[in-house]
Amino acid sequence: MQALSVQNLTKEYPNGLLALNSINLDVAEGDFFALLGQNGAGKSTTIGIICSLVNKSSGKVFVFGHDIDTELDAAKSCIGVVPQELNFHPFEKISNVIINQAGYYGVPRKIAEKRAEHYLKKMGLWEKRDQIVLRLSGGMKRRLMIVRALMNEPKLLILDEPTAGVDIELRHTLWQFLSELNDQGTTIILTTHYLEEAEHLCKHVAIIDQGEIIEHANMKSFINRLDSQTMILDLESPLSFIPSSFQYPYKFIDDTTLEIKITKKQALNGLFNALTEQGIIVKSLRNKTNRLEELFIDLIYENKQATT
Ligand code: ADP
Question: What is the pLDDT of residues 290-300, one digit of tens each?
Answer without folding.
Answer: 888 888 888 88
